[in-house]
Amino acid sequence: MRAMxxxxxxxxVRDTADPVPGPGQLLxxxxxxxxxxxxxxxMDHPDSAPRFVWDSGRDTIMGHEFIGEVVGHGPECSxxxxxxxxxxxxxxxxxxGAEPHVIGHDPDAPGAFGELMLVSEVLARTVPDGVPNDAxxxxxxxxxxxxxxxxxxxxxxxLPLVIGAGAIGLxxxxxxxxxxxxxxxxxxxxxxxxxxAKKFGAEVLVNPGERSPFEVWREVAxxxxxxxxxxxxxxxxxxxxxRTSSDRATSWRGSTPLVAGTEAIQCRSPRPPTKVSPFxxxxxxxxxxxxxxxxxxxxxASTRCPASAR
Length: 310
Description:
Blueprint (H helix, E strand, L loop, with lengths): L1 E6 L2 E6 L9 E10 L2 H8 L15 E2 L3 E9 L12 E4 L2 E2 L7 E2 L14 E4 L3 E3 L6 H5 L1 H14 L8 E3 L3 H12 L6 E3 L3 H10 L3 E3 L6 H11 L3 E11 L9 E7 L4 E3 L3 E5 L15 E4 L4 E4 L4 E5 L6
Parallel strand pairs: 11-12, 12-13, 18-20
Antiparallel strand pairs: 1-2, 1-4, 3-5, 3-9, 5-6, 6-10, 7-8, 14-15, 14-17, 16-20, 17-19
Helix pairs in contact: 3-4
């Protein structure tokens, strides 16, 4: 088959071996695939996560956000997905007696950047008629934003701040708007990204090269009638997040600064910080008197006033 092959740190479109479905696996013809930031991380930092398998001497086909058409079955399949079905799946390929392979990040689990790929039938789901292929391919990114907004427990009457208007930041904006939470403040260096965020429903657009997003957040909180509390936290971040080396974000009663799309944010307090991997996907609810670090572009965190202080 033809595929976009990653080998020895380089991408090349060429022929590579056809995948053969094993027991309980479906053979798909990819219909649409999204490019995830983790694909870039995988190329540039092959040891970024234990679950990823890197072998520079073998062909790897990336693409783990996808929709495909069933064109074949391995042994022991149920028949629930006939040939011609449109399906998507969690990006894990299961083989008996082995750890799951991450599709697209493992030479033994080819992804959707090729003409054929494999998925595990037990993880596959039929895509309803009428849903566009491209929409299905970006469901994963929107699911991340939805999950972390839900994990933050933010609700109407609280004030969100989204840092970064990439795919995850935009999905967080969409999830906030769907909940009636706003006005949504979003920060990014890219004017084009900020315009996308506006289309998604963000109302306050901030270029951190011009103003601190935390400063804007405080102003909007005051103008919206939020009451200030004395407790505060100090945050420092890389230039692509806030530009300044440090800033103070005051906690407001009934408000939540919601942070998404960052590369690295560090919250400090008198207690020793807890270190989290730069590629951690864990959300964190940080009380205004607590401490933690949360990282990576798909992280959303919130600082909420303790119930006793409301």
